[in-house]
Amino acid sequence: MFVDGVRTPFGRAGDKGMYWNTRADDLVVKAIVGVLERNPGVPRDRIDDVAIAATTQTGDQGLTIGRTAAILAGLPKTVPGFAIDRMCAGAMTSAAMMAGSIGYGMYDLAIAGGVEHMGHHPMGSGVDPNPRFLSEKLVGEDALVMGATAERIHDRFPQLTRERSDRYALASQQKTAAAYEAGKIQQDLVPVAVRTEQGWGLATRDEVMRPETTLEGLAALKTPFRPHGRITAGNASGLNDGATAAILASGDAVKEFGLAPKMTLVSFAFAGVDPEIMGIGPIPATEKALRKAGLTIDDIDLFEMNEAFAVQVLSFLDHYGIDDEDPRVNPWGGAIAVGHPLASSGVRLMNQLASQFTERPDVRFGITSMCVGLGQGGTMIWENPNYDKKAAKRARR
Amino acid sequence: MTDYSTVDFESLVALAGDDEVVTHSYVRDVPLPSGRTLALLTLDNGRDHTRPSTLGAATLLEYATTLDRLRARAAAGEIHAVAVTGKPFILAAGADLSKVAEIPDKETAKKFVQLGHHALGRLSTVGVPSFVFYNGLALGGGLEIGLHADYRTVDASVPALALPEVFLGLVPGWGGATILPNLIGIENALKVVIENPLKQNRTLTAKDALDLGIADVIFPSVNFLEDSIRWADAVISGDIAVSRPNAPGRIERLVKWDAAIGIAIKTLKRRIGPVPQAPYAALELMRAAKGGTRAEGFQREDEVLADLIAGDQLQASVYAFNLVQKRTKRPAGAPDADVAKKVTKVGVIGAGYMATQLALLFVRRLRVPVVITDIDQARVDTSVARIRDEIDALLGKGRVSPDEANRLKALVTGTTDKADFADCDWVIEAVFEELEIKQDVFAEIERIVSAETVLATNTSSLSVEQIGAKLAHPERLVGFHFFTPVAVMPLIEVVRTPHTDDATLSTAMVTARNLKKNAVITADTPGFVVNRVLAKLLGEAMYAVDNGTPFAVVDQAIAPLGLPMPPSQLLDLVGLKVGAHVLDTHHAAFPDRFYRSENLHRLADHGALLDKDDAGRVKGFDKGAMKILSGGTTPLGADEILVRLQDGLADEVRRMLDDGVVAAPEDIDLCMILGAGFPFQMGGVTPYLDRVGASERVFGDTFHHPPVRGVGD
Q: What is the predicted pLDDT for the residue at B611?
């Protein structure tokens, strides 16, 4: 069961970003401390593991970051921890693996989260791909450039136009702005003290949101991955710094410690696709997860999709015949607006789904889903413990 | 009252020129959960934590202007609270001491103190609730910044908070002496302002600051600023009420306050005598802080602090402080540390009290095998057992972990077979102070150990060179003179003979550092530094006594130096026999200048000089002793004794420098401060000799150019 989750505000990567002088491990430690502080009923010494994801596991994201973060967060030294990596789905994989360990009865309480300081660790830094990938054409040449893989989705599905992508991106900005206005996003943020050249400040909001975005503005943006292409900085998530952490618990632990879980896991699945078109990964992952859950797409009332690229979400929606503007999809906006610090994002999706579950007793099932570099997708299906048949009936009317 | 806003402080900035490393006051607005806005002021000098932010003139003016701007913004309703914090690990370390010492005249000194009040006091008139978040080191003025705030939080990991001023010849005069007792009660304040600084400058932990009431709340380091900001919001929202149980009430003011000051003065007189001005000045300020307004208190602080800054004792204290802080880190004459040999196993020759203490220190600090040898197996066993008991005692006090205790105990072994020394890279002897024994011991050991092994002697009175007379390789011999108690005293005199090579000397210096001691290199001359100066002092005392001056008069005559104890107690501490021996050896070496006292030998035979109560406190002089000393017929006057001593010391120190015993007068002073507890206000000994005119009288010059003395009125 997903007890609770928080995240740091997401920052802009690079030396102009608010976290430039903040360590990656400190970010995830703040998230861990934040979620534990909100849940005083969770006994620290009963936490069975701390799984923290990071894509680049060197420097301030190295040294087995799950273990170091646990120590830095002040958890008892008896609590172990480890590092995990599935690129963008790092935190989602942390949650899935911890959930699996709980499901098998080995763990009672676990912390799952992720961090990516893309300012300190630019995408692809230090990678050394095996030459066989190209010599044997194991993957297409676009496979390691995420923007290029997104262009390929546009190629494969000509009905997915740049205009649809831009329109979707605009909506993401607007929905996020509205959610901020209503105080919905902030409830799951932990403030982070940031050191700047003007002294200490406090990060309390995502740094990269652009509520002033217009369609015209989006249309004027360059397409860096291809001349006259479709992918722009406006219809994709940016380069960000941030961290997430969630507490997962077994049913027994929930009872023993009197916890109030926000979500119950139904199923999860990861799936692979051609690396050069990785953005369609959520489709087979969701198929698999639905099949394992014995559900159909019609049973899902809320979708928290990671918006690595607008087109990649749209390909998913088209596959299931869901409208681009369907209110069930990312009601509070997504990564295009708030950012996507790779390995941290999975738990952000869960936080937002969980908070929506709390205010939506009419909803029974929701999914969190995301595409992953090198051709993968991940999906977790969750059930709302607040689900109330009467509320659902009222909502249908 | 002084209206600080009418004082022209710009002249202070001009005076500092480009020299000041300015600590800037940066401000960022922080949104609070309640919707209010907190202006967060960060003090940051732009350097890393190895250069703590300090408070100079430009810094203080910028801080004051920044707070003025915040007051305007508060009045306009833009901000609802102000908080001050620092760069990572540091809030602020107070005024830059070296700059304070350079203040050219008393008027400037007063202005500088006033500027501190002007700037720091701004926080209390900012118009909205004010906070200081002690995120790191806060010393002196750094701690006082917070005293002007309405509320204070402290990071649990802060290594030190303190008002060390009286240790340095100053008083906490930027509000500390006035505000602190009114915040945390007179007894707590005495502890912070007087007691701790005089206990080797002890500092407070974050927890201490909380318990005393300096901080209102403590937060773990991991989320300190975030938690402090949230707490501040709760305080100004009224969700948290701050209580100050230690704040003095009416009864405390009526009854306890003056009594506490009275007791403190008495204790102080007993412990350090009446000479150091700063502690007594601080006590008077704190006495006066019982009533009246803050502004009145600040004005008193202005006067007192300006006097002290312009005085001799501050200059000598800053000089002494710099010796201890800086010169110890780069000892004069030390060869490159790179040429030092590795010490991976230590041999200790001898199993007596001193040898045992040395072995314990070596094993604790170096954590390498330490083997003890003596002719007598029983003595060896006793010594090893004693070391292991000491380690167990450390374990019992929680000073070492069980694993560490096991490790240390396993490292200590004893033997009567010197062949076990074969693989030692460092052998130190602490056997009887008899030349031939030492010569033979080393000659024997040299045949066993490798050609690389360093040999060290802890002799205090013999020639190191002569000790090595029977060595095939005297270049590997070095003097390594500890002071008792070995675990406590921070000084080692490292004695270089004409033969000692650089590798050996460097090994000795590096080893001293690894033992966490401060080493001063001295030549191989009788008494080295500390004993020679003390022999002069005791010799002069005994000369006066033997000529019929009552010992009490002698003690009193020497009191103006402000030494940690009078000669009678010093003799009692080192032991009458040792004292007599020290005078004898110095007299033998320098018969014209060092007095030897037959009476002292008689006293040693008699066994007592002082009359003490059961707790060991001195009640007076021993009657039998007084009878022994009663033969003199030409008693000296107190002034005569003092001048003889001053001149004698100036002469002897001059000779030591001329003979190259140490590199510079600074090293003599360092030795006397660290090895004999000579006070900071004397600057060791040479600044004192300069300022009382002894240097001028004896050799027509001063040790220091310019002399270390105050700027006066």
A: 94
Q: Give the C-alpha separation, B647 to B696, whole Å.
A: 9
Find out whether A230 and A163 touch, Cβ atoms under 8 Å: no
Q: Where are the domains of chain B?
A: 4-310, 343-523, 530-660
CB B414 within 8 A of CB B371: yes
What are the distances in angstroms from CA B14 to CA A313, B46, B59, B68, B119? 64, 21, 13, 22, 17
Could you tell me the CATH superfamily of domain B4-310?
Answer: 2-enoyl-CoA Hydratase; Chain A, domain 1 (3.90.226.10)
Taking the C-alpha atoms of residue B545 and residue B560, their distance in angstroms, rounded to an integer, is 18
With beta carbons less than 8 A apart as the criterion, state whether A235 and B64 touch.
no
Distance CA A5, CA A286 (A): 22
Instruction: Give the chain B residue nearest A191 (alpha carbons).
Output: B226
Residue B417, judged by CB atoms within 10 A of its CB (0-12, 13-18, 19+), counts as exposed
| 3-state SS, residue A7 | strand
| Residues B336-393 pLDDT 10s | 999 999 999 999 999 999 999 999 999 999 999 999 999 999 999 999 999 999 999 9
B555 φ, ψ (degrees, to nearest 5) = -55, -45
- Which amino acid, residue B77? G
A184 SS3 class: coil
Would you state the pLDDT for residue B582? Answer: 94
Tokens read off for B318 = 């800053």
Beta strands in chain A (DSSP E): 2-7, 11-12, 47-53, 82-84, 109-117, 192-196, 199-203, 240-249, 264-272, 300-305, 365-372, 376-383
Burial (CB < 10 A; 0-12, 13-18, 19+), residue B488, is exposed
Q: How far is B447 from chain A (nearest CA, A)?
A: 50
In this structure, what token pair is assigned to residue B44?
């940051």
Chain A partners of B223 at a C-beta cutoff of 8 Å?
A: 30, 33-34
CA distances from B177 to B108, B174, B194, B276, B437 (A): 21, 8, 10, 17, 58
Name residue, tokens 């632990």: A253
Please answer yes or no on whether A199 and B44 come within 8 Å at the CB atom: yes
Contact B42 A200 (CB under 8 A): yes
User: Looking only at Cα atoms, what is the longest distance across chain B?
Assistant: 87
Q: How far is B417 from chain A (nearest CA, A)?
A: 46
**Rounded Cα distance, B98 and B31, in Å:** 40
The pLDDT tens digits of the residues spanning A224-239 come to 999 999 999 999 999 9
Please give the pLDDT value at position A396.
83
Judge whether B244 and B282 are in contact, CB under 8 Å: no
Interface predicted TM-score (ipTM) of this complex, two decimals: 0.94
Q: How far is B183 from chain A (nearest CA, A)?
A: 28
* A304 strand-pairing partners: A368
A121 as an active site residue: the answer is no
Contact assessment for residue B22 and residue B58, using Cβ atoms and an 8 Å cutoff: yes
Q: Are strands A240-249 and A2-7 parallel, antiparallel or unpaired?
A: antiparallel
Rounded Cα gap, residues A334 and A50, in angstroms = 26
A342 touches A116 (CB < 8 A): yes
End-to-end C-alpha distance for chain B, whole angstroms: 22
Separation of alpha carbons B263 and B247, rounded Å: 20
Written out in words, the top-level CATH class of the domain with range B343-523 is: alpha beta
Q: What backbone phi and psi angles, to 5 degrees, belong to B368?
A: -125, 165
Sign of the four-CA dihedral B330, B331, B334, B340: negative
- CA angle A346/A83/A203 to nearest 5° reads 55
The residue-averaged pLDDT of B101-111 equals 92
Place of tokens 């009887």: B432
CATH T-level fold of B530-660: N-(1-d-carboxylethyl)-l-norvaline Dehydrogenase; domain 2 (1.10.1040)
Q: How many residues does chain A have?
A: 397
